[in-house]
Amino acid sequence: MDSFGNLAANLLERCTGTGKERAAQLEKLYFENAKKLKDVRNLESAEICQKADIVGLTTTGAAKQRALLNHLKPKIVVVEEAAEVLESHVVCALSTSCQQLVLIGDHQQLRPPVTVYKLAKDYFLDVSLFERLIKNGMEPCVLGVQHRMRPEIARLIVPSIYPTLENHSSVLEYPDVRGMASNVFFLAHTEQEVEDNEGKSHLNPYEVDLSLALARHLIMQGYTPEQITILTTYSGQLLHFFKVRRSHSAVQSVRISVVDNFQGEENDIIILSLVRSNVDENIGFLRIENRICVALSRAKHGFYMIGNMQNLQGKSRLWNGISRILDNDGQIGPDFGLRCDVHGVVTQAHKVTDFPPEGGCMNKCSSKMPCGHICPKMCHADDRDHALVKCQELCTRFCPVGHPCPKKCFAVCNPCVKRMIPECGHEVDLPCSTEPTRALCKKMCASELPCGHLCKKKCCEPCNQADCVEPLTTIKVNLCGHHVTLSCKDFHEATLDCEHLCKGTCGECFNGRVHRACDEKCGRSLVCGHICNVNCGISCPPCGLKCQYSCSHSKCGHKCCEPCTPCKEKCPWSCQHKTCTKKCGDPCNRSRCDEPCKKTLPCGHFCAGLCGEICPPLCRVCDKEKLTEFIMLGNEDEEDAKFVFLPDCGHCIEVEAMDKWMDTDGGGQIQQKCCPRCKTPIKVCMRYGDIIKNVYGDIAKAKMKIFQSKGNPLEFSNHCSAKLTRCRKIVRKCEELVNSTLGAINKNLDAIEQQRVRISTREYQAASRELDRFEYVRAYFVLQSTPSFPVLGASSPENELIQRLLMKNIRVLENEQKVELRAAMETLGVKLKTGLGITDKERREIVQALGMGQGHWFKCPNGHIYAIGDCGGASVESRCNECQARIGGTGHRLLGDNRLAGEMDGAARPAWPQ
Ligand SMILES: Nc1ncnc2c1ncn2[C@@H]1O[C@H](COP(=O)(O)OP(=O)(O)OP(=O)(O)O)[C@@H](O)[C@H]1O
């Protein structure tokens, strides 16, 4: 075991030894290569620097770059701030090539920092080469004019530190510090310093708070944070500054530094916190004049010191002298003087709360702002033109049409304000200059439609019952003076004129006044005999089937609705007794021949037919039963009864009865003659050729009439439009009514625009009724527009009746209602203007509105005007609404004491002759 242990130890030693050896070799190699690399880099730097006229280095850098300096061989070496550089550092920067050494510095400012205090104190290691040369009698070149400080600041160090330093003219023109009563001030206090946490430095919280408050005050005067530097003499105070500053947003960018680090630098305004203040009157570093010199010579425009001058002047000759200078000029005291140019006052401040919050003074600003209001803020140093103030007063401006702006003064006057629309009561945003009309209201309407449902459209859209899509519910109408409740269903279950049920909704059918078109199949028999197969709602159009007319020569090839072309062949109606000499298509010029046919049938019996006609296929004897099974109460039972054969259906009809049947007048009705037995139209039968031709002639005329009838959409459209235009003018005010009526009529006009070739009689009638109603409304508006209406008409029973029967009646106007309306209007017209007494325009409008021809206007024995409708003939007696005198008459005879009122319509005689 021992031998194994020895072996292991031996091996380990050998291995370790080998490793150490190798490591040493590598280390040596590394250093050699590192040196080579350094040399190469130096060479590279030297190459670059060689091309430069001036090469700048720190003294530490120069000591490190000895090789570079040796390579560059600088002949002139300039050392800036040489009084603050250790002599050894300057020596390191020199090389054998140096021919001139220029030292720039101020030995009266801070000396080079020395880490070991004893070396500085006992061996003067902190004395720079610069200072030593001067102290040893070398004559320096001294700058005699300073360009930095205003004289008020310079006099703190001249002549006490620099006996002959003069001020350059440029520093005499520096502006006064804004917001301060003095450009230089020493705030003298006795607030005690405290030691920092580690007991190595000192801090004075009072000075920290006051310095930051002063810095903020100066920033509010418009200085940038970069123009202000806070200097302090202790690092403990510096750290406390940093700590407290965190809660002072305005001063975050203000530089805070210890004096020693600010040598060689300057700023427009310096705040100096001297820190030391204690009962022992120990002023520490503040005794060192070099440091005082640096601290007092950094400010250009304004210099503010905070410290315990009592302590300082007692322990320092220099501070004592400074105190006296300051005292002489009133620049030392317990408070900073903060000047307010706005109010011309100086606020004394020795604690944070003394500083005016807005940088001015403790008064209210009270300046007049550009808007004309008085600034309500505390006196503020910034924003003196009040460009950023948001004035909270009410705006005093007016819009172009004179509405006051309701916003606050600072807000941009918005041309839009909330406006109430009188018609609907909604409030909308509208420019003042825009008239608030309902057409601009985008809110939901919610007005009640005549059917009782609420309008579901936007307020700006016209209410139209035609758009009502409500399901069947109850509605209210004021139809007869009673307030009744009807179901919308009542309208929808209406039976149309065509006898089909209406399938429309409440809105679609305008409360039953204008039903939607019936979409059932028509099924009516047309004049031509064909069955109409189009929708029921459309009036029967001209028949499109093939014409059934034929003669012995040809069949008509036209459409049924088109007129037939008369046959030009010779009329074939001829027998041994009579002959027609006309053309086949013209009326015949011979009469019927009543002679029996002389032909003998194959059975041996005589033919039962007539001379010149087609022989009946049945024998009077052999087929008697069959021949006489259809009895028309003619001579069927007679032995010599003669029969007419009708080729269209094959029936044989006794001639005397048949003649009567054919000669019977249709009562003005145009219809084809047909077989009395089977109703088949008779198109071919020479005996009745004349009648057949005449009927076809009548049918052709009827076809033409259908083409030109009132069903002509274009004519109908023009008729409606003309009437509407006339009515619209006067009832424009009554939007709802106009829209409702227009809706009903436009429905028909729309149909026409959709290229409808026909409109039904019912549609025509409905639209005409609506136009009629509209005319009544127009007449009513004429009366309403008379000046005396509000006093004499509005509360009259006639007006009430018109309102009830016309304006509030959503149903079809019945004829009796029209009569009542006319009478009420006449009476009302008379009441409003006794005699005629109306303007000529009004007279014309009334006459036109009632739409009667000339000669319908009469007057009672006392001269009160009334009208008689229909034919104009008096058919009923009544009483004058004005004077109760008898008016009208009976049997188309006017009462003797009543007269024609030709002054109304210019009629010379009554419409119904008396
Ligand atoms: N000839 C000049 N003309 C105008 N301004 C000058 C001139 N010389 C110096 N100044 C201005 O004077 C101020 C002080 O100059 P500079 O910092 O060079 O002096 P300094 O002697 O280095 O000061 P310190 O050592 O006390 O910091 C600077 O604001 C500088 O711009």
Automatic annotation (TrEMBL):
Residue spans crossing the bilayer: none
Gene3D superfamilies in UniProt: P-loop containing nucleotide triphosphate hydrolases
Keyword check for Mitochondrion: no
BP-aspect Gene Ontology terms: immune system process; regulatory ncRNA-mediated heterochromatin formation
Domain of life: Eukaryota
GO molecular function annotations of the record: helicase activity; RNA binding; zinc ion binding
Main location: cytoplasm
Every RZ-type domain range: 838-907
PANTHER family: DNA2/NAM7 HELICASE FAMILY, NFX1-TYPE ZINC FINGER-CONTAINING PROTEIN 1
Protein known as: RZ-type domain-containing protein
Species: Daphnia pulex
